Amino acid sequence: MSKEGGLSVWHLTMLALGTVVGGSFFLGSAIAIRTAGPSIIISYLLVGALVYIILTALSEMTVAEQLPGSFRTYSKRMFGSLVGFVVGWVYWTGLILAMSSEATAASLLIRSWLPTISLPLTSILIIIAVTLLNLLGAKILTTLESGLALIKLSAIVAFILIGLALIFGLTPNRTAIGIGALATEPLLPGGLSGLAGSMLIVMFTYAGFEMIGLAASEAEDAHSTIPRAIKYTVLGLVGLYSFAILVLLPLIPTAVLTEDVGPFVAALDRVGISWVANIMNIILIIAILSTMLAAMFGLGRMVRSLAKEGSAPSWLKDKGDVPFRGIIFSGIGMVAGMGLAYILPSEIYVFLVSSGGFSLLFTYVIIMATHYKFRKKQGCPPTGNCQLTGYPYTSLAALFFLVAIISSMPLISGQASGLIAGLILVGFYTLSYIALKTYSLIKSNENISLIKILGVKDIYKEKDRIGSKRLVRTLKPATNWEVSGELVVNKSYTQKNSINKDKI
């Protein structure tokens, strides 16, 4: 439900941007740009359109009803308890492993200035700080997150302004670069396969936007704030990303980019602005911390949602606004995930961490599949304003596009392991759910059936709920006249009855 004094459009937008804009864009985007060449701008625009469809689909379901657990709860209502259980835990596990590696990455950046510090200790301290800040509550956290997000966005804007000054010759003692490297570069150096291969990495630079849905139950006037926050998030991301890439392309040939140096640092270093590297390291640390803070916000609420419905241990249930137990449990999970880096062989650890990307893509597939069924059953939100135009074609197109991106993972260096690890996670949690459900049925002396094990009965409950809602809507009076005529006892009828009784 919406809350008075809850999260505003600004808070929700900054929370989403804080989650999305991170190391994947500042550092990891170099691989995608090198793979696609100048056509990378097409990738960012296409994936931006996909993100808009996914977020709008999530917005429609959220406006209809704000539920803890967001997409996990909606998927449970549409497809049953098994799907809700699996998507919730796959999302949580993938994000925990990804964020634990982010803590290590931040520690490595800090050690470049303080070479004597302990990496494990620094990583643990970062996770503890992120956990404690989340315990302060949504309003304080989103205010802090807004500040960090502004720093990251300001860094992108600063690069755009510096780049434009270099391109148009607005800097002293420098000649205009003009179209620069673009003059000799083909649009598709890697062909269509290079463009397609870049889509996965570009999708990762947008990942994390689903946080708006997880924060919806704490939003102020969710019916209006959620759609507006989604619009601003998509416009902000697509606009900033596209402009930054357009400015970058004339400054440096895409073929010289490497995964070891961020594309923006490499571009400015190439034109003689090497001092920016140290500043970008600070921005990267801020970006990582901001992403971890926002991710922990969602993880704590996901655990509370799972516990509330019996899909997580009962001792993880929380009654207050802040899911203290879910946040602390997720913090412990991050520390454990980080510890795996020092216990397991590096190949196995990288294999596990690579599941983070798959878990997000898997979540987006579930969101679109859920929305397709949701809209088919319930139509538009209660106000009747459909936000996603072109249904069902837009939903199906987005679903197809997401499946294609996941299917392309084995074709991209280092991503095949992410697909395998992700599928193992899905299989593990599917079997875990079946085992737990079977044990629960045996313990309660109930008959074991496939419908009960898979949680399909939840779908029938949802059908009944939707049916009763529609029935109530048909009886709802539209005017005061209808109230007096339909819902108030008919006086003439009672008078006739009393006359008849007197005659008898």
Automatic annotation (TrEMBL):
The keyword Transmembrane applies. Residues 11-416 form the Amino acid permease/ SLC12A domain. The chain crosses the membrane at residues 12-33, 39-58, 79-101, 113-136, 148-170, 190-209, 229-252, 272-301, 322-342, 348-369, 390-412, 418-436. It comes from the Bacteria. Keywords: Amino-acid transport, Membrane, Transmembrane, Transmembrane helix, Transport. PANTHER family: GABA PERMEASE (PTHR43495), GAMMA-AMINOBUTYRIC ACID PERMEASE (PTHR43495:SF5). This is Amino acid permease. The lineage of its organism: Bacteria, Bacillati, Bacillota, Clostridia, Halanaerobiales.
